[in-house]
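User: Can you predict the 3D structure of Torsin? Sequence below.
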Amino acid sequence: MRLTWILALLLCSAWTCTIVAAIEPISTSLAVGIAAAVTGFLARYQNILYYFQECCRPEWITYNRTALEVDLQAKLFGQHVATRVILKAVSGFMNNENPKKPLVLSLHGWTGTGKNFVSQLIAESIYRKGMSSGFVHLFTATAHFPHEMHLESYKTQLQQWIKGNVTNCPRSMFIFDEMDKMHPGLIDSIKPYLDYYETLDGVSYRQAIFIFLSNAGGENIVQVALDFWTAGRDREEIELKHLETALSLSVFNNKNSGFWHTSLIDKNLVDYFVPFLPLEYKHVVQCGMAEMHAKGRTPDMDVVDQMARDMSFFPKEERVFARQGCKVISSRLDFYI
Ligand SMILES: *[C@@H]1O[C@H](CO)[C@@H](O)[C@H](O)[C@H]1NC(C)=O
Ligand SMILES: *[C@@H]1O[C@H](CO)[C@@H](O)[C@H](O)[C@H]1NC(C)=O
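Assistant: Sure. Here are the predicted structure tokens for Torsin:
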């Protein structure tokens, strides 16, 4: 009777993992009274549950470097610098059994260059459920923390969320979109979690991943890309070192960047600044072709070319870089097909 009750509870509850963990001692004591066969069944049953219900276990959370590499190569266009940095950063961190701090990435570039998309690819390479995993948390400044007058309650809430979620699963991922619109005080409030502490209030944050997305520094990145183009140099020659200085200085000095007077940078809490280059015509075409394929159509160069030519590019005369990125292409294409 009691066993049936427990099994029913297991089946019904959305918190299966927690409950399975909680009844572990009970199932041991049951084993004393009930035949060993039942325990065996229960053990197997647990595994079945782990199989269907997302848990903080390797069945659900395992990093696949190949998957990330293949995805970055095949689905992200025109971002050779970001691709390299991301792969190195994530692989290095995930393969390190004793990281000294959580992984903190700061992704910079204009909208539509692929920052959100890359966060999604990273999530998919680690969590079986990707972005819909219960261990991946996305915060958007304007949606989650819109009113400055509520700053104090946002701070408390955010700290509780991070602490609660990391307590549930150390391998949690937090993505902060629109960092440039986030109140500096709010960023300061999460700083302790990014630091080198072994534990804070008994919780270790060293397995967690924090990803910040912002447009800050976007203009400087465009300038570097434009300088290369003007000098007739190959875009592929652009390396991280060409962008690093411009990026960190601009992020630092720009009051609107969201990093303003936070000590994220001077304390070296950000492990990698990842620049996203503005897209050129050929990248827009690549996006378009991939998008047609994704829509289940035969990629048609004429259609994609037509769409790409109607998009707006800058500088006005030279028309080198697309104003919008791959994000808008999906809906645009419908119009041309
Ligand atoms: C890792 O990803 C690659 C490419 O998507 C896939 O072929 C492979 O089966 C994956 N490995 C594991 C262990 O899931
Ligand atoms: C985890 O974060 C989410 C927000 O993404 C929040 O709603 C939830 O309450 C947090 N969980 C805990 C246990 O704090």
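The CA atoms of residues 184 and 261 lie 7 Å apart. The chain has three domains: 3-46, 65-275, 281-336.
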